[in-house]
Amino acid sequence: MNIFHRIHEMNEILIRVKIPMKLFLTCPKGLELLLEEELHQLGIEDTKQTVAGVQCHGELEDAYRICLWSRLANRVLVPVYEGEAETTEELYEAVQQVHWLDHMRSEGSLLIDFSGQTRAINNTHFGALKVKDAIVDQIRDLTGARPNIDKVAPDLRINVRMHRGKVTVAIDLSGDSLHRRSYRLKAGKAPMKENLAAAVLTRSGWPKRIEDYDLLLDPMCGSGTLLIEAAMMAADIAPGLHRKRYGFSRWTGHQKEIWDELLAEANARKAKGLSQLDINLVGRDEDKSVLRSARQNAERAGVSEFIDFAACRVEDLQRDELPEGVGLLVTNPPYGERLGETQQLMFLYRHLGDRLKEQFAGWTASIFTSNPDLCKVMGMRADKQYKLFNGALESRLFVYPISEKRADSAQQEQQEAKPLSDGAQMFANRLLKNRKQLSKWVKREEIDCYRLYDADLPEYSVAIDIYRDEVHVQEYAAPKKIDPVKTFARLQEVMNAIPVTLGISPRKVILKQRKKQQGISQYEKQSETHRFKEVTEHGCRLLVNLHDYLDTGLFLDHRPIRYRIQQEARGKDVLNLFCYTGTASVHAAKGGAKSTTSIDMSATYLNWAKRNLDLNGFDNAAHHQIQEDCLKWLRLQRTAAYDMIFMDPPTFSNSKRMEGVLDVQRDHVDMVDAAMRLLRSDGVLYFSNNYRRFKIDHDALSDYLIEDITHRTLDPDFKRNSRIHSCFKITHR
Fold first, then answer.
1. Dihedral of the CA atoms 67, 69, 74, 75 (nearest 10)?
2. Could you tell me if 553 and 534 are in contact, meaning their C-beta atoms sit under 8 angstroms apart?
3. pLDDT single digits (tens) 622-647
4. Suppose 353 and one of 125, 378, 581, 664 were both cysteines; which one would form an S-S bond, judging by CB atoms 3.0 to 4.6 Å apart?
């Protein structure tokens, strides 16, 4: 065996006599240069960048120092074997070249991280299994005992990488990834990893230029990661100081006295840094629940007294409500992959750009995003930009210096009332025309909610609904081939024109994006405002929520069929299937129904239905709510117990809460048959759905009388879109 194949023996000697040993540090892609510079600051000069990592040489004390002080690294690996291996047998033999009792106890535990592949080994789980076998077999042959696998807190974590016929076996001194600082137990929906946050701050000039700033602001702080990392950097707090466990903690090569000295030094630096910290750190976010997590995280990090967290929307951000001085704004806004739709988020970015230009003269703003198109709508030019990776997502950090001239110009533009563009004026004219045509009907019917506009002009593809004193705008998703920035420009014209044309506050215009829904996504929450408002329809009081869900709780196109049910329900037992928020049940009760039964599989919407019934005084035992899969419930019923049934199933649903998949075109015959079994001989079933190409199967349903009443269930506000739904009156022959 040549000396190249026995690096493990050399490393064992190097550890004990304090001769520099080889180390490999992993990090997220894009951070290699920053990590190398960080190592130089830690006194380690012999470095070399690789993809997603840096190689260096250092003593064991240096390895410990990196574990404790690196804000950017993920792992600190000490190679104990490097050689050639292609087959499973060669991998097994390579791992056995290491004397494993020098690194762990025979009754200890281990965990294998395996990466790479060869022709013979193309599965990482299989590769890890062969490494485990080699280690366990060696220790068992030498001692008669065998170590165990522990995936949570192993005594020794081993990293093995195979690449192009080479294998590297290393001890992982870090254990869990170093980005886990142990202060963040709770995070938002898309949290930024701590080492990426540190990289964003470093690229933004923090804390190197701390003397240039009076405060640091994150207007969308989420769980507070950027602010907490900024405070720890400014206060000279070692990022690993709060961790209770490292990969070397139970490694037999661990030298506790060296580690204890480093900890004592770090604690002394922390105490000194906190005593000298004199800068305002400000966090704002509109989500109060995530701010609670941010405060708790800051407390665990020991920096809560230096960070001011408060609830505030970006569009409500006011410079004069913040501490005085010039500062650095650093933020990681949502970017459209998981948290929201791109078009909606463009308004968030536009609000941010407007606020910066209007009120933050002299500041520097750093915006980190995985969707650079969103930053285009801010109307600002970045002086610097950096490519970083948020996991696998290639991302950009844009750095914007905000000059006095730029801010003054923005204020002047804001003060000057801009006339509507030609396109926006055309759109505004259509709104006025539609409102005039519908005004007499709205007044006569005494309704609060109606559709004013539905993609009447192809260039402005939105639906606009009036909810008393608020406007609900649904943007139809544009084809992917259309430039999203151009699409946003049109949408912005819509949002600018509506308040001017209808004479309402811009804050009362709520925007959502409607796209093809799958499963229960149309019922999933879009927000958490819990802002319900009461509206009236044909004498019924109903609760709507324009903010939290894609749909508002009131399907406006079904207004006529609800009124028909109200007029025919007196003295009848009424069944409302797929009841949603129970509005049809309220109308039936208002019309004098003997009883109503509302069925839906969503507890949220059944509770909403109960609130609607209670609001109208129908809180007695005659009105029932059942949480159940409607199809399953129908199959189990046999008694004809209802005089009127309203069934409005979704077009398609593959919800996990349902048995199977619902397709209204394919399944409507079975649904109608099952419902008709429950209908008394002189009863009526109203069957409705919103599938634009729906065709009822008259032959399969020939046992019943079927009347297409769609044209009679369209009020004037939906006459422009006669295919919005289909509705049928079905009775026994």
1. -20
2. no
3. 999 999 999 999 999 989 999 999 99
4. 378
Q: What is the mean pLDDT of the chain?
A: 90
What CA–CA distance (Å, rounded) separates 41 from 232? 17
Tokens matching residue 264: 């004592």
Alpha carbons within 13 angstroms on the beta-carbon side of residue 61 total 14
Query: Strand ranges (DSSP E) for 238-320?
Result: 280-285, 307-311
What element of type H or E holds 359? helix 342-359
Domain boundaries, position 572:
533-732
With a pLDDT cut of 70, the percent of the chain lying above it is 91
Number of Cβ atoms within 10 Å of the Cβ of 478: 19
CA dihedral 434, 440, 442, 446 (to 10 degrees): 170
Q: Does any domain span residue 246?
A: no
Is the pLDDT at 333 greater than 70? The verdict is yes
Return the structure tokens found at 163: 């690449």
Strands 364-369 and 327-331: parallel
Asked whether residue 214 is domain-assigned, the answer is yes
Asked if 371 and 442 sit in the same domain, the reply is no
Radius of gyration of the chain (CA): 33
pLDDT of residue 8: 47
Indicate if 537 and 448 belong to the same structural domain: no
Q: What is the pLDDT of residue 336?
A: 65
Tell me the C-alpha to C-alpha distance, in Å, between residue 546 and each of 96, 129, 313, 453: 65, 54, 17, 17
Neighbours of 73 (CB within 10 A): 26
Count of structural domains within the chain:
4
- Out of 466, 485, 515, a domain closes at 515
Residue 231 has pLDDT above 90, yes or no: yes
Q: In this structure, what CATH number is given to the domain that contains residue 352?
A: 3.40.50.150
Could you tell me where the DSSP H helices lie in 277-403? 288-301, 342-359, 372-376
Instruction: Based on the fold, state whether residues 613 and 718 are members of the same structural domain.
Output: yes
> Token digits for 661?
């998949």
Report CA dihedral (322, 326, 330, 333) to the nearest 10 degrees. 50
Clarify whether residues 360 and 377 are in a common domain. yes
**Residue that terminates a domain, selected from 484, 515, 546:** 515
531-557 residue pLDDT tens: 899 999 999 999 999 988 878 999 999
Is a pLDDT exceeding 70 seen at residue 523?
A: no
Shared domain check, 451 and 551: no
In a domain, 588, yes or no: yes
Q: Does pLDDT of 409 surpass 70?
A: no
Cα–Cα nearest to 148, from 88, 116, 206, 108: 108
